[in-house]
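One example given next:
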Amino acid sequence: MSKKTTAAAALGTVSVLAAVVAFFADVTTIADFFDDSDTTEQPATNVDSGSSGQVPEQFLGAWGGTVPRSIYTYSITVTITPGPTGTKVADVRYGPCGGWWSLQTASQDQLRVVEVLTSGHQYCVDRATIELSLQPDGTMRFQAASTQYAGVLRRA
């Protein structure tokens, strides 16, 4: 094997290893990666004091945007509907994952929801807490509380 061929093979191996490490960095635990349990049950509520317990009108409707991950970016679409804490208040889809959100807390400019996956368990974290904040420019900030993943959503 020539030095060029050996160097190219080594570079290719390093690239593949870097991609694998980056992919697994997105997985909270190895159990999350292999978990494909049924997640159709509603999560328990957790209402903070001062929370209205309902989704405010300014959050309702269809939103879209992107959420960058370590080696790729997901497009996200979500439709938020009215509802009290502890109930399904949104359908969400991003990348290979989909599911719904259950309301935990609500204020006039912030929501905290728990994401329940119905597809993509091998790629995304089930039962993640998501914080949504309305911004002065009319956008909504998306932040996964257990990770560094965040994005900006706009009305669709």
DSSP finds two helices and eight strands in the chain. The first strand starts at residue 61 and ends at 68. The two ends are 55 Å apart (CA to CA). Residues 3-25 form the longest helix (23 residues).
